Amino acid sequence: MQSREITWLGRRGAQSRIDCLPKENICSESVRPLSLSGHVGFDSLPDQLVNKSTSQGFCFNILCVGETGIGKSTLMDTLFNTSFENSQSTHYESQVKLKAQTYELQESSARLKLTIVNSVGFGDQINKEDSYKPIIDYIDAQFEAYLQEELKIKRSLHNYHDTRIHACLYFISPTGHSLKSLDLVTMKKLDSKVNIIPVIAKADTIAKNELHKFKIKIMGELVSNGVQIYQFPIDDETVAKINSTMNGHLPFAVIGSTEEVKVGNKMVKARQYPWGVVQVENENHSDFVKLREMLVCVNMEDLREQTHTRHYELYRRCKLEEMGFKDTDPNNKPVSLQETYEAKRNEFLGELHKKEEEMRQMFVMRVKEKESQLKEAERELQDKFEHLKKMHQDERKKLDEKKSLLDEEMSIFNKRKAAAEFLQAQAFQTTPQMNLKKDKDRKNY
Ligand code: GTP
Ligand code: MG
Questions:
Q1: What separation in Å is there between the alpha carbon of 83 and the centre of ligand 2?
Q2: How far apart are CA 423 and CA 435, in angstroms?
Q3: How many angstroms separate the CA atoms of 232 and 305, rounded?
Q4: How many angstroms separate the alpha carbon of residue 173 from the centre of ligand 1?
Q5: Would you state the pLDDT for residue 443?
Q6: What is the number of the ligand closest to the CA of 280?
Q7: pLDDT of residue 10
Q8: 155-174 pLDDT, tens per residue?
Q9: E-strand stretches of 21-150
Q10: In angstroms, rounded to a whole number, what is the distance separating the alpha carbons of residues 187 and 397?
C-alpha cells in the first residue's frame, strides 16, 4: 500500500516529516500533540468561518403541511415577524399541491434566504389515500436537483440555491381527541425524508387540561406507529439541557397572530376574544416561544445539517444504488467508482448487444413471416388468375360457338332473304301483263 507524506511545522519551526498512512490505518498514537510557544493565528479560524458564512448568507427552507385554513400562513408571519405573501386557499382542490415562495430576510448582519412551502388543499379530497404523494414528490425533487448539481462535472454548490426542505412543520388539528389516520400516514411517509416538527395548531381553541392529555395521546400514537419525529439534539452540551427539556414539550401547541393588542402598557401579539386576550408570546398561553426558540434560535443549523447528513444522504445512497453504484463487491472488497462505471458500461454494452441480436433475429423472423405470407398471397392470386383465365376461355369458347351458330343462322337467313327478294322481283315483272289482260276482259264484257 502506498503511503502519503504530510509536512507540518514542529515546535521550533523545524520542519518535520512523517509518513502518514491513509486515514483508516492511522492509530491515535501517530498524531503528536505539541504546544505552541507563541501566537500563530489559527485561533481565528472560527471567526473566519463565521465571517465567510455571514457574507455568503444562509438558506433555510420550511415546509408547512396542514389542512386548509389551519393557520399555516399566520404562524409563519408570526414566527418571522413579517407579512409574507399569503392568499387564502379554497377547499375545492382536486389534489394536494405544493406552493413555494422564497424571501430574503436580514437580521443584524445575518442574511437569510427563506423558502416557505405550503401544502395547498391538504385534507380536502374525499379520497385522501394519495395526499402524501405530492409532498414526497416535492421533497424528492429538491434532493434530486441537489444530487444532479453534485454530479455535474462543473458544479457550483457554493452558490447553488439549496431548496431541500430543512424542517417540516406538521399542523395537527386541535381536536383534543387523537391524530387522524391522514396525519399518521403522512408523517410516517415523510419521516425518513424530512425533519418533522409536529405542532398543534390554533391551540387557543383547546382547554389547558385537555391540551396536556392531547399531547400525551399524540406522542403515544406517534411512538406506537413508529413515526420518527425530529428530536432536538442533545449531543452538544451547550444546548443539551434546553433541547432535552423542549423534547418533552413536543408537540408544541401554537397560536398565531400578527395583531398587536395592548396588554398593561405594552403592545403584544395576541388574539382578542370577547372574553379575553390570548397572547402569542405568553408561555402560559402557548408554546409559540418554544417553537421559535427551537426552530430558529437554537436548532436551525442542526436542522440544515440533519437534512444534509441524514435525509439527503439516504436519498443519495438509494439513488446511486438504484443506478448500480456500490462501495463494495459481493466479497466485501471495496469497489471504486471507475470500476463500477466500467462494469456498468460493459453490462450495458452486453445488454445492448443482446437486444440488438434479439432485434435482428426478430427482424429476420418477421421478414421470413412476411415473405411466406406474400408467397401465399401470390399463390392465391395465381390460382385466382388461372381460375379467371379458364373461366374467360370457357366463356370465349361458348361465345365463339354462339357466334358460329349465329353466323350460320345469318347465312341461312341471308340466303332465304335473297330467294324471297328474287321471287318478289319475278312477281313484280309478271303483274303488268296480267293487269292489261284484265282491262281487255273488262272492255269486252
Ligand atoms: P390556507 O393557506 O388557506 O390553507 O390557510 P392557512 O393554513 O394558511 O391559514 P391562515 O393562516 O390563513 O388562517 C386561517 C384562519 O385561521 C384565519 O382566520 C386566522 O386568523 C385563523 N387563525 C390563524 N391562527 C390561529 C390561531 O392560532 N388560533 C385561532 N383561533 N385562529 C387562528
Ligand atoms: Mg395560507
A1: 12
A2: 19
A3: 12
A4: 11
A5: 66
A6: 1
A7: 38
A8: 988 889 999 999 999 999 99
A9: 58-65, 97-107, 110-120
A10: 93
Closest ligand (CA of 171): 1
Ligand 1 pocket check: which of 67, 68, 74 to mutate, most ligand atoms within 8 Å of Cβ?
74
Compute, in angstroms, the gap from residue 184 CA to the centroid of ligand 2.
22
Q: Give this prediction's pTM.
A: 0.75
- Dist CA 385 CA 378 (whole Å): 10
Decide the pairing of beta strands 58-65 and 110-120: parallel
Q: HEC string of 133-151?
A: HHHHHHHHHHHHHHHHHHH
Interacting residues of 121 by C-beta distance below 8 A, sequence separation 6+:
68, 89, 90, 91, 92, 93, 94, 95, 96, 97
CA 438 to chain centre: 128
Q: Alpha helix locations (H) across 41-122? A: 45-56, 72-79
Residue 67 CB less than 6 A away from ligand 1: no
Sheet with 260-263, edge to edge strand ranges:
260-263, 266-273, 276-279
Among candidates 24, 5, 3, which has minimal Cα distance to 16? 5
Separation in Å, CA 34 to CA 10, 41, 42, 320: 8, 15, 14, 42
Q: Of all atoms in ligand 1, which is nearest to the CA of residue 77?
A: 11
Residue 164 near ligand 1, beta carbon < 6 Å: no
C-alpha span between 312 and 322 (Å, rounded): 15
The tens digit of pLDDT for each residue in 213-259 reads: 999 999 999 999 999 999 999 998 999 999 999 999 999 999 999 99
Rg (C-alpha) for the chain, rounded Å, is: 49
